[in-house]
């Protein structure tokens, strides 16, 4: 295996897909003309070698970092002087590479590629090693961006950036390299050579290759909806502190929530999007499994009070990038940054907003970043769905409300935390008795409904059905759906309420709808489906659904009780006892059975059949 030290330049056309979409022939003609005119000289003059083309990007190898940086500067200067519609990002690294024929691999190449992704449009990012080699040898000022955690790169990398339009006074205050060698005029005159060579090679190879493998619509698990469909993948935490995961996750959830409220979009639910967290992503595979055309991915970096969001929207049908952008600001700007990303997606997908949606664009339930941060920490615990985590979540939600007493998302989360603790008999973890837990849930819900979120309305509906107010609960659950048409939890809430109300067939229709929005939450969908089938007295199907739920997620033991009840009602007492023996060692089925027996079924026959099954299964005496 041959290895060598090399300077690697990775470059990428900003917004190439949009340029080609607007004028494919014209874009290719402009680039081809530049090649034919004069710019093939650039790489040869700087002793570079084109290694390979990667969609709308290119990889070039140099023997000298100085040559690589001089070439990059001439490239960006030439682009800015000749074609204002074209912009590029460039990353340069000095590192060890593995040589295989004409190709090169290894961390040296990976770092250059990641640096290109960090660079602003029209800018150049250097690794610390490359900067030290070029320092004092080129006439350019670089901003020290500090250590950056790069995706799939083990150690943080020091990064320096050159931006062509940085004001001179501001540039003088940046950490920069002293000038010792001016760029030769022929280099400045040849700024587009590399671009044109790239185009010539691409045309010689045939069709323009795609950055991502396209996803075949015929292979998708679900038919594409009749409106733009999108999945927002968990944003990577690019902060140096892994404990900032909650912040990146919270930003992702907020984007999903904002997009899902737009009726012109079909948005995959949070549960299914987060199934891809910390996985090696294949965009085409994600699109096929979720049945969507567009995929949004990105990263969040938080350093002190500074926040950076990188986001790119990919059209899985073509494999091309619809847009890619970076958003910088302070923690105080975080809500505006989120709004910018949402607006950009709406524009890119040509989605029309209703008047109400236009009014609600950018509407946040708090404008205080400290309250938001506390809420995100609490929400990370709430999502873990244990009584201990509920107790921790409550502390963070309380902190958020101390900062902003009118923070409706935190009020709704407090109501949900207390209600679930009451309903599941987890109130001892809160240090309260059962009645006090219910009272606090009701108090927080009253405040949350002043500016209602879907979660608040979901909790309200559940409280109504518990009180036997079935018609009111159904109407309330429909309000939650109206607030967020793509919220799978609202659909499932309504399905459960219809189920308890004695309308199981309607519940099954909603389960199918929720399944489409949230394909990776099938264990819960199968559980609710089983309850509806039990109510319809289709015991064979109900048992199969409960067993599927337990197989899909063994940690989700809630279906064990109705499965035992179903077997008991089928006259299979031995199988019922086997379920209890298998699942009740770690999960308290008797406590779950007690909760189930208290639930106010609207039809007395449903209540009697379920309790009778509990008795036969040995779960109630």
Structure notes:
- With 621 residues, the chain is α/β, with parallel strands linked by helices.
- The strands form 2 sheets. Strands 1, 2, 3, 4, 5, 6, 7 and 8 form an 8-stranded mixed sheet that branches. Strands 9, 10, 11, 12, 13 and 14 form a 6-stranded mixed sheet that branches.
- Strand 12 and strand 13 form a beta hairpin.
- Helix 22 runs antiparallel to helix 23 and helix 23 runs antiparallel to helix 24.
Provide a count of the helices. 27
- Structural class assignment: alpha/beta
Total beta strands:
14
**Which term fits the overall shape?**
elongated
The N- and C-terminal alpha carbons lie at a distance of: 73 Å
The low-confidence runs, each spanning 5 or more residues with pLDDT under 50, are 165-211
Name the average pLDDT. 80
DSSP strand content: 15-25%
The largest β sheet comes out as: 8 strands, mixed
Integer-rounded radius of gyration? 29 Å
Q: Kindly state the percentage of residues in helix.
A: 40-55%
């Amino acid at each position: 295996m041959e290895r060598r030290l090399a300077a690697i330049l990775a470059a990428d056309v900003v917004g190439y897909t949009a340029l080609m979409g607007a004028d494919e022939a014209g874009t290719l003609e402009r680039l081809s003309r530049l090649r034919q005119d004069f710019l093939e000289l650039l790489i040869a003059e700087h002793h570079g070698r084109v290694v390979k083309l990667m969609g709308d990007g290119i990889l070039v190898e140099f023997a000298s970092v100085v040559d690589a940086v001089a070439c990059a500067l001439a490239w960006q200067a030439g682009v800015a002087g000749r074609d204002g519609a074209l912009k590029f990002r460039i990353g340069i690294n000095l590192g060890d590479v593995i040589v295989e024929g004409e190709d090169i691999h290894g961390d040296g190449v990976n770092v250059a590629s990641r640096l290109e992704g960090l660079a602003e449009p029209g800018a150049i990012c250097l690794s610390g090693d490359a900067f030290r080699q070029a320092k004092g040898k080129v006439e350019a000022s670089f901003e020290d961006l500090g250590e950056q955690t790069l995706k799939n790169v083990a150690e943080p990398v020091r990064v320096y950036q050159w931006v062509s339009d940085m004001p001179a006074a501001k540039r003088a205050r940046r950490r920069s390299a002293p000038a010792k060698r001016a760029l030769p005029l022929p280099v400045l005159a040849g700024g587009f050579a590399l671009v044109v060579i790239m185009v010539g090679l691409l045309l010689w190879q045939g069709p323009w290759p795609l950055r991502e493998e396209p996803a075949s619509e015929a292979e998708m698990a679900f038919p594409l909806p009749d409106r733009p469909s999108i999945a927002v993948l968990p944003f990577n935490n690019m902060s140096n502190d892994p404990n900032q995961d909650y912040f990146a996750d919270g930003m992702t959830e907020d984007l999903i929530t904002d997009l899902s409220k737009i009726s012109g979009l079909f948005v995959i639910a949070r549960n299914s999007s987060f199934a891809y967290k910390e996985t090696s992503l294949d965009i085409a595979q994600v699109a096929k499994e979720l049945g969507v055309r567009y995929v949004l991915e990105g990263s969040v970096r938080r350093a002190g009070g500074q926040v950076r969001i990188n986001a790119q929207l990919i059209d899985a049908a073509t494999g091309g990038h619809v847009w890619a952008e970076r958003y910088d600001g302070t923690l105080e700007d975080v809500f505006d940054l989120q709004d910018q990303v949402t607006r950009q997606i709406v524009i890119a997908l040509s989605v029309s907003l209703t008047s109400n949606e236009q009014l609600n664009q950018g509407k946040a339930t708090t404008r205080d970043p400290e309250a938001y941060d506390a809420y995100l920490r609490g929400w990370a615990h709430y999502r873990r769905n244990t009584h201990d985590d509920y107790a921790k979540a409550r502390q963070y939600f309380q902190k958020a409300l101390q900062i902003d007493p009118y923070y409706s998302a935190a009020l709704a989360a407090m109501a949900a935390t207390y209600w679930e603790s009451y309903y599941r008999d987890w109130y001892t973890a809160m240090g309260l008795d059962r009645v006090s837990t219910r009272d606090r849930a009701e108090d927080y819900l009253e405040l949350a409904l002043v500016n209602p979120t879907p979660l608040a309305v979901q909790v309200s509906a559940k409280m109504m059905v518990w009180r036997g107010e079935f018609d009111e609960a159904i109407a309330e659950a429909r309000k939650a759906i109206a607030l967020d048409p793509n919220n799978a939890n609202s659909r499932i809430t309504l399905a459960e309420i219809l189920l308890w109300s004695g309308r199981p067939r309607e519940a099954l229709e909603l389960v199918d709808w929720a399944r489409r929005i949230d394909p990776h939450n099938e264990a819960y969908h199968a559980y609710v489906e089983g309850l509806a089938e039990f109510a319809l007295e289709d015991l064979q199907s109900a048992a199969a659904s409960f067993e599927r739920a337990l197989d899909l997620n063994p940690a989700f033991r809630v279906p064990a009780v109705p499965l035992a009840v179903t077997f008991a009602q089928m006259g299979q007492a031995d199988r019922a006892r086997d379920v209890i023996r298998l699942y009740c060692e770690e999960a308290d089925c008797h406590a779950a059975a007690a909760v189930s027996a208290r639930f106010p079924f609207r039809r007395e026959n449903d209540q009697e059949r379920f309790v009778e099954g509990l008795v036969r299964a040995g779960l109630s005496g």
